[in-house]
Fold each of these.
Amino acid sequence: MVDLSFRARCLTARPDAVAYFDKTSRGRPMDVTKVRAEFPILQRKVYLNSCSLGALSLRATAYLESFQELWHELGASAWYGPWWERLGDLRSRVGRFLGAPVGQLALLPSTSAALSVVAESVDYGRRNRVVCTELDFPTLAYQWAVKPDVELVVLPSHDGISVDPEQFAAAVDDRTAFLATSHVLYTTGFIQDLNALADIAYKAGAYFLVDGYQGPGQIPVDVTASKADFYTTGPLKWLCGGPGLSYLYVRDELVQKLQPRITGWFAARDQFTFDLEHFEPQDDARRFELGTPALPTVHTALGGQEIIDEWGIEAIRSRNRALTEHLVERARESGFQLTIAPDPGDRSAIVMIKHGDPPAAVAYLAERGIIVDHRPGHVRVSPHFYNTIDEIDQCITTLAESPR
Ligand SMILES: Cc1ncc(COP(=O)(O)O)c(C=O)c1O
């Protein structure tokens, strides 16, 4: 007889992952050796690029193996049983983690897809302006750059680090449909004040849309308390869950009020009646969904999310702050200039180090087993809770030796 119990499957698939399944480390000091044992890349490399891609854990691998095993064993029946259950598990776990009440979270294939669905949920007849910043990720602005009837306002950054809320206040008015910006700026690691921006949007009657891809997993986030109307994030980076999914939170009254013009059968209330003549949307945020989600990622995302939940976001943030401040100090001691927030309280674990030839520096480090990334004019170093002070020292010492 086939055993559909997922836990049992995981235990068979990878016995060394067993020890972690039932333990809750929340509230206890972080045992870094134990954390690191979950992530094999840390035994092979100095991995300091979590803002591009979080490390893959043994836990995620065990989930993935169980996914494959169920596929071998059950074929399509896996879909109707355990895979469907996993989808529900992920939705509830992520909802709890983000502070999104039940029914206010949609799963989509990427941040770009989530933003597209939101951008196609409103009417631009009376309000056709969208305000974002030059420090946001381009995929945000592109949603409206392709709509000829929308006036896209891209606010400049005067210090290259952040954008003053006063600039938003001056640009967001009664013609504005969306104030759309990031929680954490991928360009500088700056953490924006969401409540201040929400107030600006609400005062003008505009929607407040947040691209939170660089936030959850490295800083505490409560989407309801943030006062965002829409908040997108995903498992790829700080949540260590891999590519292929995004999470979209929609504020409660908007769930019922809006009906996206991009859609699919997962958004339909009676998904399995196969009625082409009538489309009735789901009553909850699933009306923002499209089609079949990436099931392998649903599994790897569960693995990453479990680990983050077990250690607890407060402990992770506190460790990341310590790593970040050490990195900042070491880089400055070595003579590097940084593009980061002046106030450490506004900084996240994305550290931008000015460099004359960033691609060459990144290649130099990679040849020596140190993985970082580059963005124009900068080497970008992003430690996560599984990194150590020694790794940061190694990275900065090697960077200082690289041709500048
Ligand atoms: C802040 C931010 N938003 C959006 C994206 C792109 O997301 P996706 O490829 O899922 O559309 C990235 C990717 O690095 C990002 O850093």
Amino acid sequence: MLIKKFDLEVFTPPCEPGAERYAARAHLMVDISETLPYLNATLRGAVYFPGAGALTWKKGGHNIAFHSYEIATSNVEDRDAAEKELKGLVDLVNRTWERRTEITPSFETRQRPTPMAIFKLLPQTNCKLCGESTCYTFALKLAASQRKLADCPILNEPQYDENKSKLGVIMIDGPAIG
Ligand code: SF4
């Protein structure tokens, strides 16, 4: 096991004094730099910066950053939620490291799609069946990984097949490995 333990730090983000949600960091005793190209290859929507030794990812409304000796996450409710979230990310790093011989590492820096790029490929009917008031709101939440492509039932209609395929290529739709 690569990461055996970590020190947890929970704090109010400096840019949001008085915020009711917290940010948290796991301070690591080992350098996880070598796992980043493997995470980059397996986490859909991850953005790897080889020169900075950092990889960012969005998952379930959390902005996550992996660095050599640190994993950080945003938007956690309290200390217990922070610990659970970071423990899940530590497990992800450990599982990925254990599977590294099965994974082709990627050193590519991908670009995240903008909300407008996503919106252009949505049906733009504002039908609200996804639970959002407009397709653009849905696009914003897709870009932030707070919704999934499958939450728009209209995309399953045959006339949107091509757009749905394009969205499938550009979209951040959660982890490719669990
Ligand atoms: S279900 Fe699809 S088409 Fe309807 S509002 Fe949501 S994103 Fe737009």
